[in-house]
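Lab notebook, bench 4. We co-purified these components, and the gel suggests they stay together. Before we commit to crystallization screens, I want a quick structural picture of the whole thing.
Request: model the full complex, all chains together.
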Amino acid sequence: MADLINLTIDGRAVQAAPGTLVIEAAKKAGIEIPAFCYYEGLSLQGACRMCLVEVEKFPKLQVGCTLPVAEGMVVHTDSPTVQQARKGTLEFLLTNHPLDCPVCDKGGECELQDMVFRYGVGESRYIETKHHVDEKQWSPVVYFDAPRCILCYRCVRVCGEGMGVNALGIVNRGVLAEIGPNEGDHLECDECGNCIDICPVGALTSGIYRYQTRPWEMNHVGTICTHCSGGCKTTLGVRNDQVIRGNNRDRSGINGEFLCLKGRYAFDFLESEERLQTPMKRVDGKLEPISWAEALELAASKLKDAKNPGVIGSTRTTNEESYYLQKFARQGLKTSNIDHIRTGDVTTLIDALSGKTDALATIGDLYTTKAALIIGADLAQQQPFMAYQLRANWRHHQSHTYTITPGPVREDQYSVGAVRCDAGKELDQLESLRDKLKAEASLVIIYGDCVKGDGVRKLVAFGDSLGIPVKYIPLVDYTNSRGALDMGVASDLEPGYKPAAKTGLSVAQMIAAKDLDVLWVVGEDPLRGKDLGSTSAFVIVQDMFLTETAQKADLVLPSASNYEKTGTVTNVTGEVQKLKRAAKTMGAKADLEIMGLIAKEMGLNLGIWTPDKVFDEIRKTVKGYNVPLPVVASGGAAQSQPVNGRVPSNYNPAEIDSDDNTLFTSGTLGRYSKIMNSVMEAPGGLYK
Amino acid sequence: MTFSPALEQRFEKMLKAYPEGKTRSAVVPMLIYAQDETGAVTEELIQEVAKRCGVSRLQVDEVVGYYSMLHRKPQGKYHVQICTNISCMLVGGTELYEHCSKKLGIGHKQTEPTGLFSLEEVECMGACSWAPTVTVNYDYYHNVTPEMLDQLLEDIRKANR
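Here is the predicted assembly.
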């Protein structure tokens, strides 16, 4: 490493690596240089002039956010000249800025307010009429109020550089300059809302949050998004037990400043009028409301008498619920007919990697790896956070990205090797990239559901033959798809990828079976477009909504969503993170509580069923899940390490199938989010 | 959209003149030369330039909005632009603009009925050292006084009679 550079900031000796910007060097030394347009990770703009500092021997004030440190540099960040410059800058920024803070969404968490409070002059000499432009709606979720804009270009950069969408620009010039959307009067984009989060003022506002409340009237609950498997943290703003917004301004999760529209807006299913509030049982062919006491008693008696039950778990419920459900099935019901709907082949990978260490990549690795290979996935649509990480890696470290996909993907904008082939033929194309991949220092291979069964073994053999360190990410669809498998909600596997003592029926086999007497479905919709083979089976369904499966049920138990639960979930790369309960439920109960109450009713002793206790048991007994508790408890992500030991499995790979969700769909849950359906007009579909 | 053979040839050369992947650099010259031929930067032209340079429509639109020599509507044969930004304003730019407006009988972004002159009040043209500045089509005039401007307009009128 090059020698550190010595400089002095406000009389303090500071050391920084060559190339460090003065604003960053000061920050490390605990000195704040205020700035609007500067944003870590995005290109330098130097637009707002808020970060002006005095550097000795320079005749004029310097822009701290674009000036690299130099040996012997003496910087003053709080001299009278600097203070005066800041006051002047703020006075200019406020000339046309409406002082509508009392009704502005940003009031209370506005960077301009904070800066004026801390550095401003307190009064304005501007007495002319302010230039006014009416606010505009650009999409169901993005509004723009031009007079509030301070033209820091943050939104333009996060949309172009961060997302690769380039939907925002600056139109006109001088006092008339304002942010403009790509389609003239509306946006055609990912609707991710990162522009809203990153806006330092109230110029870009969220269609669902605007004028709803004041930031300080909410509790801010950081939890894990309940949609795709990326494991992004979303901070829910909750007032009077109602979730009002989702955002990511504190950047506290693994997702940094990123959040897509699912985490930001698609929590409105919580308040859906279709939400189930009370248990129901089938009476004369119709579902009639009953009390919880009656429902639990009925469920317990049916499960107790069951000779050949089947249990289907969920890809959204917590690890604790999945673990408890399989324990319930195996120990309580003495059945091995337990499974969940698999959306990617993880099992074969864990088997194929047996004997290796450090072969499972984290999402963080996508930002540091020298190269990545994407096989059969449209990341920008299916795994937007991964797409964001890879793009940031390319932007900051010039990493190489290769793709083998059946159609164009957004990574084409910067990839160094894009191979197109018919869907299902992806692995045949590996050899064409061999020479290029061999020359890389390290590689992360991301594969979709087109690679499964023997295909995974073939892929790992290819990875081994490259002679470079290779890590893998098997893509799965939902927030806890990975956890369901890890926890052994699987016909062929017990928790921790331990081969099941006796292989039970898979989901497809359970649906086809003619002799099931009870089917217990927890948070899944396996009978969508299908009929159960066993017409006499008693069907118990725990769900938030009257899904197609619930409509065919004999007993429906209303359950809580992940935003109304505590527990842990495991993301696509095996990282365990904690859910924090944001809202309470009225009639519905958390799935773990429902299962615990049924167990109690049946007189089963399956252990204490509080999330913390079950998680303790998971950490002690499930291979790879002995994750550091302080990391998880404090809201961090800890990767589980289930590799090692062979995992013999005869699971039919044909049953593994991704739902191919786009940015605007999220399986069953997506159908109940009005906001997600309202932005469906935007381009959807993979490989377009 | 197609242009004259000469212009097509020019564009072809231009796109190769910049380093690989930097065809965005050709946006401004392309717009100017195309505007000379078509009279204005139409929506069709914006999309054509975006396509040829491999950038988004919005990125071209940003450029058109920024530069005062690019126009979305056809101008008079002689397009008079007068700067009223701070350096010019301090030495009489605003008065100069008002004088010209009165003289020609047209306002900001308007064209004479004869189509000879059009007028525009513009932002800084980068000639502050010689303020106030006026441009007529692509020619700069420095340290302009109302008398000089009158003479200039008169000369043009004579030449076009």
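The mean pLDDT of chain B is 94. Worth comparing against the SEC data before the next meeting. The interface with chain A takes residues 56-59, 61-62, 65-66, 68, 85, 123 of chain B (CB under 8 Å).
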